[in-house]
Amino acid sequence: MIRKIIKTDDNWGQLIARFTLGLVLFPHGAQKMLGLFGGYGFTATMDSLTHQMQLPWLIAFLVIITEFFGAIFLIIGFSSRIWSLAILFLFIGIIFTAQIEHGFFMNWFGVQKGEGYEYSLLIIGLATSTLINGGGKFSLDNEIIQK
């Protein structure tokens, strides 16, 4: 069972999809977990997610963990399918809890009350590709399965 989950196509396209997903997601996770890139850090983000957005503490915790560790593990290609699935569910949740009411487009010019879901759809697409095909070339998944 584990071998099926870890097995990956050894191709460049999946490397690009996995690496791009990890690199794009990492700053968002680092904002929430560490307070980097202008973020608030773990405690303030937990407070915001549980009080302002009224998410249960476990969901708020999983949001932070998934964005931070999911991004890191995708960059190195470890458990790529599992983290991609977590990210897929996370961003579907983000669309329905925070973005759908604002429409498709992101808030490029600050005229909307919130962000649309176009960014989330891109994340979902990359996560789905990685979920289906695995981590690709130069992933730890690939190294593990070959041994």
From TrEMBL:
Belongs to the DoxX family. Keywords: Cell membrane, Membrane, Transmembrane, Transmembrane helix. It comes from Aquimarina intermedia. InterPro entries: DoxX, DoxX-like_oxidoreductase. GO terms for cellular component: plasma membrane. It comes from the Bacteria. It is a multi-pass membrane protein. Pfam families: DoxX. It is found in: Cell membrane. Its main location: membrane. This is Putative oxidoreductase. The chain crosses the membrane at residues 55-75, 82-100, 120-140.
